[in-house]
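Task: sequence design from structure.
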């Protein structure tokens, strides 16, 4: 199919989306929008939770390198031919965005990174680009909410930090650390409020850093029509949050990344694009193959920001999409621990069995599940050992993600050298 024809289909589909969204999603997927190939852009600089008893146990996935491990080897995404009900965002993870969410501040999009007005030099060490901590609020004995003035976002945003028992501001030693990324339409408190991550973390001498990720940030420096600029979520997380935590909170260089839904995409792509930064990466129900045939159309129709502002046009800016596709870049995960899990969108043991097929949680997990299968197959072709837990029936919600954290946590702690306390 010629690019001009693909472009016409994409434009027509987007215009029709407001009238009949599901039908357009299916039509575009069947048309194969997103199939054209392109050369990927260069990588970026480079009490415990009770076990719910998984339907299946995680399995080790290994494979041999093969020439077939290319983006085009991904299976097309099959879009459920049903109307969305009970909320329109299949990848929503509950909660609500931050009140000053940079993703919603369209007036700043595309502007050159800069510190927000009124920020002055304080007592905390800065990141190399000038990002600085402006305030620290104690939430409880082991948690702090940290305000960060970010040039990459042009705003002051929050990061929640869980510190291990015995941690002191005057410490000279450093601690292993997990960077935990939240899902879409949520905020930095998600892993604490919804995930109860403290219940798992408190038994170990590791820190957990939970940064703001925006309601729709997609853990990416936005394309913004080719201009780049604010918001630069990847720069915020890698070039600002990490050095600020290491210079002010005694976070060490032994790091893991984990995330759910879009945060799972972030944890894997960050590990791929910044080799050597993380020793372990985990993704729960993540969109791990955004360039699978049909998926660019699904994302652009489902969310008008997804393809145009964040990664660019899915046809003409294909290389940028591929540069942020976890399955395309899976070879970069060699040498680190990886845990991947997802359901298939059918009601599982923790869902209402009468949930209609068009419920957002069903559609979202169906799509995430298909992309996760593509990712697992790409890892096999590339000869990258990973642990996968494709547990079958299960929707896009926290009951499964809490269980998956519980299952993956011991291996994550071993990878970063954390010890029980």
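Answer:
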């Amino acid at each position: 199919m010629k690019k001009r024809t693909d472009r016409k289909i994409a434009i027509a589909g987007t215009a029709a989306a407001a009238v009949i969204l599901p039908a357009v999603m299916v039509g575009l997927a069947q048309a194969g929008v997103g199939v054209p190939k392109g050369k990927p852009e260069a990588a970026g600089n480079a009490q415990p939770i009770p076990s719910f008893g998984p339907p299946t146990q995680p399995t080790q996935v290994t494979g041999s390198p093969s020439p077939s491990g290319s983006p085009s080897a991904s299976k097309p995404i099959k879009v459920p031919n049903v109307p969305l009900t009970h909320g329109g965002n299949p990848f929503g993870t509950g909660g609500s965005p931050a009140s000053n969410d940079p993703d919603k501040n369209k007036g700043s999009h595309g502007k050159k990174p800069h510190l927000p007005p009124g920020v002055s030099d304080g007592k905390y060490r800065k990141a190399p680009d000038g990002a600085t901590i402006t305030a620290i609020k104690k939430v409880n004995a082991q948690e702090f909410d940290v305000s960060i003035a970010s040039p990459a976002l042009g705003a002051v945003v929050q990061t929640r930090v869980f510190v291990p028992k015995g941690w002191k501001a005057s410490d000279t030693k450093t601690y292993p650390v997990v960077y935990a990324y939240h899902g879409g339409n949520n905020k930095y408190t998600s892993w604490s409020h919804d995930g109860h991550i403290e219940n798992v973390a408190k038994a170990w001498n590791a820190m957990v850093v939970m940064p703001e990720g925006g309601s729709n940030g997609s853990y990416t420096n936005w394309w913004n029509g080719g201009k780049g600029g604010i918001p630069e979520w990847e720069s915020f997380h890698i070039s600002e949050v990490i050095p600020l935590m290491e210079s002010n909170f005694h976070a060490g260089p032994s790091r893991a990344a984990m995330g759910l839904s879009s945060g799972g995409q972030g944890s894997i792509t960050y590990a791929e694009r910044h080799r050597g930064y993380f020793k372990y990466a985990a993704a729960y129900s993540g969109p791990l193959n955004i360039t699978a045939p049909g998926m660019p159309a699904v994302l652009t129709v489902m969310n008008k920001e997804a393809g145009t502002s964040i990664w660019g046009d899915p046809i003409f800016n294909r290389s940028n999409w591929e540069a942020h596709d976890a399955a395309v870049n899976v070879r970069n995960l060699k040498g680190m621990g990886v845990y991947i899990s997802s359901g298939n969108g059918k009601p599982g043991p923790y869902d209402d069995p009468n949930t209609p097929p068009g419920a957002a949680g069903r559609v979202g997990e169906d799509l995430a599940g298909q992309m996760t299968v593509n990712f697992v197959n790409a890892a096999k072709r590339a000869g990258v050992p990973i642990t996968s837990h494709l547990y079958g029936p299960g929707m896009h919600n926290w009951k499964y993600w809490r269980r998956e954290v519980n299952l993956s946590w011991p291996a994550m702690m071993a990878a970063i050298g954390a010890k029980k306390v």
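The beta strands are 59-61, 132-140, 143-150, 155-162, 175-181, 207-211, 251-260, 280-284, 337-342, 386-390.
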